[in-house]
Amino acid sequence: MTAPDIDVLCIGNAIVDVIARVDEGFIEKHGLVKGSMNLIDEVRAELLYADMGQAIEVSGGSAGNTAAGVASFGGRAAYFGKVKADQLGHIYRHDMRAQGVRFDSGAASEGPATARSFILVTPEGERTMNTYLGACVNLTTADINADVVSAAKVTYMEGYLWDRPAAKEAFKLAAKIARAQDRLTSITLSDSFCVERHRESFLELIRNDIDLIFANESEIKSLYQTQNFDGAMQAIRKDCPIAVLTRSAAGCVVVKGSETLSAPAYPVNKVIDVTGAGDLFAAGFLFGFTANRPLAHCAQLGALAAAEIISHIGARPEVNLKAHARAVGLL
Q1: Could you tell me if 254 and 243 are in contact, meaning their C-beta atoms sit under 8 angstroms apart?
Q2: How many domains does the chain have?
Q3: What's the CA angle centered on 60, arms 34 and 129, to 5 degrees?
Q4: pTM of the model
Q5: How far is the C-alpha of 94 from the C-alpha of 109, rounded, in Å?
Q6: CA–CA separation, 292 vs 282, rounded Å?
């Protein structure tokens, strides 16, 4: 077996983020649930876009953001995701490669357009996502490059993939390949509504095929259908070798076997936009983890990356995270 030459392979929905600031009235007018992720069709997408005013467009997608974060720390990152051979698809590929991420997935020549997510940011920094999945839903087992999976220390997926059977099978194949090579697998639960849709199959996957799980407080409580965080924490302890549970301003808890460690959030002067906070936390943690750093240090790197992301609009770092971590003594 050859030594891995990729630290983290991320698999997810390749989506261009369209980010706009809105007030509470906009959320109410369109009947949205603040803080949720809603899947929409092309008609709904056009309606929201026409009403939202000025917006920023940037390559995104949960696992894509994580891959970009790993690369910004200096890690070796790769990405599987589906775009169409259209303008946004070309932009997405260019952005990923420019950020240092290996992205070789083939583009679709026909079918739906490259996906986009309308991210509506209310004044306190909360984001409500309305996503037209477009081409990204057509990720299949044919897009899983076994050589890339075999070369990755950790294969990491976003829970949103579970909404489409073909994408679900793609990750199952990747997990099978990873396990055959004694590599590790990881998942982020993505969204509490996503957990509600797929609770039983998530639990089956976590118990049988996942080495490292990322979840925020609402997601982990949804997974175990409890309002008690400590109860959910004890449950995941039995189901997954390592669980990283984020709690916003309260920091995070890392659970490994009988071990439990708590780490604080990194201070930030003002929360501007929480889009991508969990994605970048995972990036920092996975960068440290694949570099064999202690779990407490991994959590610090995750907190640093999350703090950088929430201090500005957009879910990709505005500074080089490696240099940033060195400047504050974490690398």
Answers
A1: yes
A2: 1
A3: 15
A4: 0.90
A5: 17
A6: 15
Query: Does residue 191 lie within any of the structural domains?
Result: yes
How much is the pLDDT for 43?
86
Angle at 114 between CA 9 and CA 110, to 5 degrees: 110
Angle at 114 between CA 124 and CA 199, to 5 degrees: 60
CATH number at residue 163: 3.40.1190.20
Residue 78 is part of which domain span? Answer: 6-327
Query: Considering the domain boundaries, does residue 1 fall inside one?
Result: no
Handedness of CA 263, 285, 274, 138 (dihedral sign): negative
Phi first, then psi: give them for residue 37, nearest 5 degrees: -115, 120
pLDDT tens per residue, range 237-252:
999 999 999 999 999 9
Q: Which helix (H) or strand (E) holds 187?
A: strand 184-188
Place of tokens 């910004």: 72
For the stretch 218-238, pLDDT in tens is 999 999 999 999 999 999 999
Residue 252, SS3? Answer: strand
3-state secondary structure of 179: helix
